[in-house]
Write a structure and sequence with these properties.
Layout: H1 14-23, H2 28-35, E1 42-46, H3 52-61, E2 66-71, H4 74-87, E3 92-96, E4 111-115, H5 124-134, E5 140-146, H6 164-174, E6 176-183, E7 188-195
Parallel strand pairs: 1-2, 1-4, 2-3, 4-5
Antiparallel strand pairs: 5-7, 6-7
Length: 197
């Protein structure tokens, strides 16, 4: 199983990870709609990796918005920065950090996207707890993951997948109120949660 799935993605190139992100392109509009992302929005993307979703977010927030693309891998964010430069996009702010311990000095986000990343994290509950600290009252987060009952034709293997009940419990323990749950495909689900005051 270790050769099939490694939490740190060391078995893949960042181009391969980017290609996997592109395969989930049809899920992204629902994530953005659930957060209410529009021109001028400030969105924190947790585990941005090589940045496909960050680039889509940048289009939605426009020149007056900000996308905080956060990842623990400097190499992944360098991949994103190359694409950002090629496209002349200035509203993405790449930041090498672990969101579970991020101080957030100067970071002012309205909402956060936590998609297909918690199953890679060493401290998924810690990520959600720290997001509660970083975000203002009533801020929304979208958490999306691979469903354990999915066919497992793409994404994490069944043993690495997180149940919606587990993710909901982490969100609620962190101080978020889950407002919506939906199955986006046989493989994917999303939760929408709001930061309690």
């Amino acid at each position: 199983m270790d050769q099939i799935f490694r939490k740190d993605l060391s078995h893949l190139t960042w181009d391969e990870v980017y290609a996997r992100q592109v395969q989930r392109a049809n899920l992204v509009p629902a994530w953005m709609d659930a957060l209410g992302v529009g021109p001028g929005s400030r969105v924190l993307e947790v585990g941005a990796g090589p940045g496909y979703v960050s680039l889509v977010l940048a289009d939605r927030v426009g020149a007056k918005g900000i996308v905080y693309a956060i990842d623990r891998s400097a190499e992944a964010l360098a991949h994103l920065e190359r694409r950002q430069t090629e496209r002349g996009i200035s509203q993405i702010r790449p930041l090498v950090a672990d969101v579970a311990t991020l101080e957030g000095n100067g970071l002012r986000a309205d909402s956060a996207l936590v998609t297909m990343i918690l199953h890679h994290a060493e401290d998924p509950a810690g990520i959600l707890r720290n997001l509660h600290r970083l975000l203002p009252p009533a801020a929304r987060i979208v958490v999306a993951e691979f469903h354990p009952e999915g066919p497992c034709e793409q994404g994490a293997p069944r043993a690495a997948r997180l149940t919606p009940a587990q993710v909901r419990a982490w969100c609620e323990a962190a101080g978020f109120q889950v407002r919506d749950y939906r199955r986006q495909s046989p493989e994917h689900y999303m939760l929408v949660a709001e930061r309690a005051a």
